[in-house]
Amino acid sequence: LLPLGLVQLLGGPAVGACPCQDPRLCHPVTGTGGFEVFVFDVGKETWRSYDWSKITTVAAFGKYDPELMCYAHSKGSRVVLKGDVPLKEIVDPAKRAAWVSQQVDLAKKQYMDGINIDIEQEVNETSPEYYALTELVKETTDAFHREIPGSQVTFDVAWSPACIDKRCYNYTGIADACDFLFVMSYDEQSQIWTDCIAKANAPYLQTLVGYEEYITMGIDPGKLVMGVPWYGYDYVCQNLSQ
Ligand SMILES: *[C@@H]1O[C@H](CO)[C@@H](O)[C@H](O)[C@H]1NC(C)=O
Ligand SMILES: *[C@@H]1O[C@H](CO)[C@@H](O)[C@H](O)[C@H]1NC(C)=O
Questions:
Q1: CA of 42 to the centre of ligand 2 (A)
Q2: pTM here?
């Protein structure tokens, strides 16, 4: 009886009791062996049908599901938080530090293995937000690596670094500052300013050009994880002329 009581006492509310049947499954997953198969989970029960023999990281973009976390850990896969914040709010270093520490606390409380930063906001080159964003990634990586050993910090980028959708970021600085970039090689027709014309979601050659651009600017190809769209769009004709 005594050891049980002791365990309950030690597993007090500071971090939150481990929701897994085997408490070892609340330990962070460290090292997945070089290659990454990175999945964005958007909630519900689809994770039950994943091929867990292949997945190394699940970015949990849906509602927090402790069952998913426990199951992923039982398969040696990481589960990471989604990180997003209006950039205006993190230009101030003190506010930035507060945001970073909030994310680390949340990750600890939910037994997560890192964070995927998904800031898809417009940024002008050399604006205050431009510099703050690179710092945000650096500070997030430092804090996670320090506080959750073996954790992973990644950043989502557009299919090309050429200011796609006005996202003029310091791509080399951000790549250096995190574990790897997740390249969103999809929705490559996003800038439809004029007539909408049906085109491929991820045209083969255009996709390759994007990677060439990232590599040419000096980013280590080993830090680029390719995102693939497992979806397409229906283009419905509004005005049929023929
Ligand atoms: C970027 O600069 C342009 C021109 O100065 C300005 O109109 C726009 O609002 C700026 N965008 C952001 C996100 O700061
Ligand atoms: C990008 O970030 C790195 C690291 O902070 C910095 O050394 C470099 O000067 C930045 N590049 C530009 C163009 O701002």
A1: 33
A2: 0.90
Structurally, the chain folds into a number of domains equal to 1
Provide the domain limits for residue 208.
81-226
Ligand 1 near 126 CB (within 6 A): no
Per-residue tokens: 158: 């557009």
User: Would you say residue 58 lies in a domain?
Assistant: no
Gap between the Cα atoms of 58 and 178, Å rounded:
17
Q: Which of 45, 67, 89, 120 is catalytic?
A: 120
pLDDT tens figures, 225-241: 999 998 888 888 877 77
d(CA 122, CA 198): 25
Identify the DSSP state of 195. Answer: S
Structural domain includes residue 120? yes
**Tens digits of residue pLDDT in 96-122:** 999 999 999 999 999 999 999 999 999
- Report how far apart, in Å, the C-alpha atoms of 213 and of each of 169, 185, 194, 240 are: 14, 13, 26, 38
